[in-house]
């Protein structure tokens, strides 16, 4: 499991971009060991599966 900053570094984007992807549902993320669902208000740090790094950047936001 990766931290948000690790994913941001890999894709060469700002950390807030990764948070936007998570909240939009474009990136699978976990909080407190549970899958994160957009709109969930639980506290805790996000962890992102390493498989996200293998995706071919379909994460870019549509302009």
Q: β content, as a range?
A: 5-15%
Low-confidence stretches: none
| Percent in helix | 25-40%
Q: Output the strand order for the largest sheet.
A: 2-1-3
Sketch the major β-sheet.
3 strands, antiparallel
> What is the molecular shape?
globular
CA-based gyration radius: 11 Å
Continuous helix count: 2
Order of helices and strands: HHEEE
Quaternary structure annotation: single chain
Number of strands: 3
- Report how far the terminal alpha carbons are from each other: 30 Å
How does the helix and strand content classify structurally? alpha+beta
Mean pLDDT: 83
How do you describe this structure in short?
The chain is of the alpha+beta class and 63 residues long.
Describe the structure.
This protein is α+β, with helices and mostly antiparallel strands and 63 residues long. It is built from two helices and three strands; from the N terminus they run ααβββ. The protein has helices at 4-11, 15-24, and strands at 30-31, 34-35, 46-47. Helix 1 packs across helix 2. The radius of gyration is 11 Å and the shape is globular. 13% of the residues are buried.
């Amino acid at each position: 499991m990766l931290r948000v900053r690790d994913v941001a570094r890999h894709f060469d984007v700002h950390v807030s971009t990764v948070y936007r992807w998570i909240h939009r549902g474009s990136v699978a993320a976990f909080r407190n060991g549970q899958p994160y669902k957009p709109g969930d208000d639980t506290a805790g740090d996000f962890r992102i599966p390493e498989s996200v790094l293998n995706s071919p950047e379909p994460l870019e936001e549509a302009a």
